[in-house]
Each structure stands twice: as structure tokens, then as C-alpha cells.
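A note from the maintainers: we've had questions about how concatenated examples are separated. There is no special marker in the raw files; a new sequence line simply starts the next protein. For clarity in this README we add a label.
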Amino acid sequence: MSGLFSIGTSAMFASYASLQTTGQNISNANTPGYSRQETQLETAGGQFTGAGFFGKGVRVVTVTRSSNDFLTKAANAAQATASLDSAHYDQLQLLEKVLPTGDAGVGAAASSFVNAFTDVVNSPQDASARQVVLARAGDLATRIRMAGEQLDSLQAGVTQDVKTSVASVNQLAQRIAQLNQQIAQTKGTGHEPNDLLDQRDLAVNELSKLVQVTTLPADDGTLGVFVGGGQCLVLSNQARQLAAIPDEFDPAKVQIALVEAGNTRPLSASAISGGSIAGLLKFQDEDLGHARNLLGQMAVAFAGRVNQQQSLGLDLSTPASPGAPIFSVGAPVALPGANNAKNAAGAFISSVNVSVADPTQVQASDYQLQADPATPGNYLLTRMSDGLVRSIPNGATVDGITINVPAPAPAATDRFLLQPVGNAPRNMQCVLDKPSGIAAASPVVATVGSTNTGTAAVAQLRAVSTTLNPNITTDIQFTDNLGNYSWTQTDAVTGAVTTGTGAWQPGTSIQLNGFDLALSGVPKTGDTLQVAKTQFPATNNGNALALLDLRDEAMVGRQVLASGTVVPGATITDAYASAMADIGVRVQGAKTASSISGAVSDDAQATRSNQSGVNLDEEAARMIQFQQAYQAAAKILQTAQSVFDTLLQTAAGH
């Protein structure tokens, strides 16, 4: 009888345990990170009798959770990639709004400014036409400056987001370390702490959204967590911390460091390969800086070229004088590395000076400068946009910028980040405030001889160099019908006379004394031209025509190859359109990547959920099954009780 009672009792307990586990599954069906649990049963073993082995019931072994380490790691890795792409795409969408299309864009403002010179060309003395030019100049400077400020705001937002995310990483790391300790303490019981394991898996999954991690289980049940290509973040019950620190060169930017034993060790951005933090750093390092350099390149090239042409003309002051600058932009900067040599006061020993030599040749890139170990006195200049490395002497001009390194010379390990154009947009302004200051007049005018027999006429005369001396009168006489000519220059101040010869043909111009003279028609032998000082600057529009021509000048991003070949740049409107297209391509690429990685992550999570998630239909069926088993076990006990009562009654009758 005791055997029947034992079997019924164990069966009832096993069914009750299964009912309890099933109820736990149902109640936590929507709990994040919960893994389906299952009661593990085994037979209690048989008892040998002469008639064979008779069972002694069932025994509850433990409660296990449905979890697959491989699927969990795959889901975490996919989640990290999806978070990276999503964060990157979100930031690029904000960046795209900084460079708007249509009339709201910088390209339209630049076109409006240049086109405003049309009225100045038609009426050089009209103060209202000149005022419109200044208004358009102010609008262009404001748009570029606001775009630069928006880029700075995006950088500030990235920095703050990274700091917030790093704080979350540290909290999760501490939580995982605490769970490790609790799990290790309960490991000795011989049973798995399922709820604690679920909580730890959930914490690791949340951590993967912020930064990609790798995990390594230990024999004591703890889980090691590693970031940044193998850097330990959590080991047993100890958690290290990450820190968001200023960039080595640019304090406005942020980088990730690992704090250990009180020391802060920067991690390479390439080592942070997943999670939203990696997406933010990728945007900061690859997209935001590139956009700032594109905008800065346009600002430097256009402002520099306009100011240059303005300086070649004459304004309406009395007496007329060369035009003052219309625009100003932020100056180039050279940022020393944080680890560069310092003096006892903590100041950097060496410095670098950068200036713009030719605004039309500046490139949309930062540069890194350090001593050239192979050539003493030279420096290795790395163009960051494409990785081009050149060895240059001190004072060299490269890509339109001049680099000077004053004494004392930098140490061998010193490094500098050069930003020729990155600072330009945020400080662009229209600095000319007087309409009379617009230099619409050319310092010289050209006239054709009254007795000329050919069809040659002055198509355009423009000043092209600050070396132009308006006191020099240049007389040109064509010596044959082939376009050959002789010229005589007479300085009205010094009386100096110089002579020479030249050749002209259709499509070319005559360049003397810092001016460029274009002709239409064909001269004949004996025809003459004279270029002399402008007598009435107020009615002259020569320089206004040259300023108007800047609309179609390919001034942005010219390059001079090692062979001396000049690669044309782009007009200001084409450069802006190219910048918008560049950002647009990045946005579309990020959108596609985010869509793909998001789908992969969803699939990985679904696969993991299919393995470890709760199916309510299945659990409902199990509930009925275990309920019936419980009732059957109760029936066994009822039957045993009935048999036992019968035996007692029989024994009492005897």
C-alpha cells in the first residue's frame, strides 16, 4: 500500500510542479527577456521483486529554461549592427537638412549675390543697385554661417548622445557584474538560477544596442564581457567603465576610452564596431567633418575669389581706391596633439601656422603633419580625405595652403591636425557695409585706334593681378595680319619705358601689366590699341563685369598635379549641388544599410524567440495536460485510500 501512496504522491507533486512552471510561462509571456521554462522529470527507479521491477513513481529533477547560446550571440551581434546603422542614418537625416535645396540653399544665395552685379554693370553709380549687392552678400554670409552653426550643433548633440550612452553602458556593465555574483553564489546548489540568467541575457542584449560586445562564459557560471576588440569590460563580479573624452586633437569631438586602475586609455574608433555609439562616432568622424570641409571649401574659395577680384577694382571713394574685402571667413587652424611635448608650465612647445595662399585650390580635407624621419627638416603631410602622404619642406605651399613651422621644431613624436577650411563657415561675415565701397570700376580702360582698318574691338578688359600699375600706359600695335604685335609701356610717374612683342590669335588674350585684354574681331597691320588709367571710375563697370563673371568661374577645388597640369574646379553652384549630392548619397546608403541590418536583426530575434519565447497556445494545451495528470494522480491516491480502508475493514472483521 505504501508504494501506491508514494507513486500517487510523487505523481501529484510532479504534476503540480509542471502546472506551476506552465503558469509562470503564461504570466511572463510578455516579459522582455523571459525564456520559456520547463520542469524536468525522471522516473524514481524500480523496486525489484520476485515478479520483476515495479516503479516507485516520478521525481522532479529541476526547472530548465529554453535558451540557445549560439542564437543569443547571433541576435546580440545583429542587434549591434542594426543599432549602428540606425543611429548613423538618424544623424545623416539631420545633416541633410543643413544643406537645403532650392532657394533656401547656399547655392541659390551665391547666385543671387553674383547676379546682383548685373544692375551695377548697367548703372555703376546707382547706390540702390550697390545696396542690393551688399544685402545679397549679407544673406549669403548668414546662410553659410548658420549652416556652420548647425554643424556645430550636430557635433554637440553627438557628443552629448555619446556621453549619455556611455553612462548607460557603465550601468549595464555594473548590473551584469552584480548578476554574475548572484549567479555564481547559486551555482553551487546544482540548479540553474533561470530568472537571473534571463536578466543577464537581457542586460547583455541592451548593452549590444549601445556597443558591440563579445561574451565568454566561465566555469563558475559568470559571463565575461569584452568590447573594443577584446578589451575587458566585465570579468566575474568586477566591471570596468568606459569614458567619453575629448578627441586627441579637436576638443569639440569625442572619443571612447576605457578606465582601468585610475588610468584612461583611449580606444580606436575602428575597435568600436557596433552599437549606437559606433554609429555616432562614424557620423562624427566620417560624415560631419566631411560636410563641414565641403561647406568650408566653398566659403573659402568663393569669399577669397570675390575679395581678390574686389581688390583689383576701384570704388567710389575720393580719390578712388582699390576695393576693400566684402567677406571674411574663419582662419585656418593647426591643432596640436594632446600628447605633444610641453614645457614646465604645461604649454605646448611647438606650433604650426597655416594660411591660405590660393583659395581656389584649397581642398575639402583636414591634414595631419609630423616630422619626416627619413628627411630631416621636412614634414610628412597626410591629406585625411584620401590618405595621400607627401614630404614637404618648411614653408611649402600645398593644395592652396602655406605651412610654416616656427622654431622650436616639433619633436619626432609631435603631431598636428591642420584644418584649412573647417573653421571658415561658422565665422563667415559680410564685412563691407558701404555701397560706395563696391569696386565696380576697372583701374584701366582700353580704346582702339580711330584709324584702325581691321574689325578688332575690345571684348573685355579685366585686372587679374594686384601688380597692375594704373599709371602705366600700354600702347599696342599689330605688325601684321597674323596677330603679331609690338607693345610699349610708359610709366607716367617715373617716365620708365619698356617694350616688347607678342602674338595674338582668336580665343586668346593679351596679358600685360596685370591686365587681361580679350578681343573680338580680327586686327590688321597697323591697327592700334591703348590701355590707360581710368579717368572716370564712377561710370566704369569693368570690374563689375569681372565680378559678374565669377558666376561661371570654376573656382572651387582646383588642383595642380605634380606634372603641372591644372585640374579645373567647380562653380559655386555646381560645388553646392555636388555637396548636396554627396550627402544625399550617404543618406540613401545609410537608409539601405539600416533597412537591411534591421531586417536581419528582426529575423535573428525572431529565431531566438522561437527557441526561447512563450507560445500561449502551446502553454494552454500543456496546462490542460498537467491538470488532467494532477487529477489522475489524485485518483491514484483516492484509490489507494479506498483499498487501504477495505484492508482495514477486512482485518477488523477477522
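[label: protein 2]
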Amino acid sequence: MVCDYGSTVILLHPYTGGAGASTVTLPAPQLNNIEHYNLKTSFGTAMSGDIYSYIKTPAVSKLTMSFVRLTLALKNEMILFLDTIGGDDIKLTDWLGNDWKGKISGNPVQFEEGINRYNLTLEFEGVPV
């Protein structure tokens, strides 16, 4: 099943856009997408002897998105985009319309080949803006 809210994921490099910017528009990802949280719980003792805890949420989130049935042209466009960005920050607009600033992780990005179509699992680490 595919997400249908915004229906696309847009990748932009450089993050600020402008003249000469590269853009790739991917179809909506599968619904099994994951936003990873690396929550940390800390415990302490107050001067009164009471024990307390708090949860620290890191600023960076990791998104894992699965795209299916990509055409050969879109696969080649994505490969060219990945070669262009290097390790630079990019802007990702997700299928919900949220903007993120970060980097594509999970290097190397690999495509799974199907019958005249390609599947891609993309990992992105960044912060919402």
C-alpha cells in the first residue's frame, strides 16, 4: 500500500536551492516507512532523596523510506542526483509536506531490480525545518 497524502517525495540539492539546483521527485513511498527515534532515559537523585527520570530526544531523526516500481529513467536520475550531492546537506519534502534538512545515509544506496522496474530503500538523517 502506498501513502497518498502528498503523493511525492522531493529531494533538492543544494539545500537552499537557487540556480543550478538539482531536484528529484520520487513517487509516494510504501506505508512501511519508519521514523527512528534514539531516545535516551536518564535517572538522577534529588537532594531530598527522590529519584527522577527524564527522556532526552535527539535533534536528528532517521527516516527509512521504501519506493517501489521506479522506472529506469527515474533510477538513472536518482543515481545522477546521488553522484552530484556527495556528502552535502539536501532538502527533503516528505509525502506529508514536511521539510527536512539532512543527508542521505546508508551508503551505498542500492536498487533492487524487478521486471522493468526498480525498488529503492532510502535512509535519510536530518532535522525538520
